[in-house]
Amino acid sequence: MAEIRRYDIISDTHGYLTPELLDALQGADVIVHAGDICSPSDFRTLQLIAPVQACLGNNDYASDYPPTVRARKVFYGSGLKWQVSHYRERLNLSLCDVAICGHTHTPFLERDEWTGTLVMNPGSPTAPRRSRPSMGRILCEEGRVIDAQIITLR
Fold it and tell me: Which domain of life is it from (predicted)?
């Protein structure tokens, strides 16, 4: 039986990681951050919990982060191709299985009707707009998503 891996999805933390968020991230296999980290020390804190796959947001500076953190991030995990961009319009849904975006601070989760790609904006755990503080969680087995959800914090 294939191993189930947990991907915890966050965005728009803007230099603040709440204790509740840090607790919720414990046990993640991978943390995906869709930009506006706004704090190299927060990035390092996240790396202590799990490997981090991240892109830059409009409030991030490339020089503050490792060279692997750029405007758009593409990586492979659990037999799936992932794409992460702060802006939804910069995602190419025909080239990935899972697409993650941020920027709006408002969560959504959907399957693209044309490509079948799972698209998620986890909202913001620290500065939400038109919603409660939130994050996302995606569970994967080799080659497939078995569960995806938006988690409301506090």
Answer: Bacteria
